[in-house]
Specification:
By secondary structure, the protein is mostly helical. The protein is built from 5 helices and no strands. Helix 1 (about 5-35) runs antiparallel to helix 4 and helix 3 (about 75-90) packs antiparallel against helix 4. The radius of gyration is 17 Å and the shape is elongated. The structure holds fe (ii) ion (2 copies). One fe (ii) ion binds near residues 47, 109, 110 and 143.
Amino acid sequence: MALKTLKDALVEELEDILSAEQQITAALPLMMAKATHPELKAGFQLHLDQTKTQISRLGQALSALGHPPETSTTCEAMKGIIKEGQHIMSTQADPDVMDAMLIAAAQKVEHYEIASYGTVCTWAALLGQNEVKELLGQTLQEEKMTDEKLSTLAESVINADAVA
Ligand SMILES: [Fe+2]
Ligand SMILES: [Fe+2]
């Protein structure tokens, strides 16, 4: 379908993000299983729960725009980021080193999401789609907080533990 308006682009982008979130939902339990530091494990569990809520928000946003709450798209970027993560998880590594690498992989996921949600929030606001903007804004804040928590965890303990 040719995209004629910014609203069409918004729907296209939301379908892409929905695919990304679905892929993340499948990947997070594996990352949780591979993590050793209890705070990191708990962080992945929390974010898995949040991601399920984020998926339902995307469904609500698509519905508000008159579209079915589903996607037929595959987010190729997330597929690639997760493929790298799977490569990391299949590597033999000291537990502290693995935790540091898992955080690095998770932050790539978060930054992709922050970029995507930032864009769709801006577009929804411009289009006067306040409900959509509100829904996506909540998720954007969660992604930013997750990213910050990962940075704090890495910088306060995990990276130092992995040094030697
Ligand atoms: Fe997410
Ligand atoms: Fe996220």
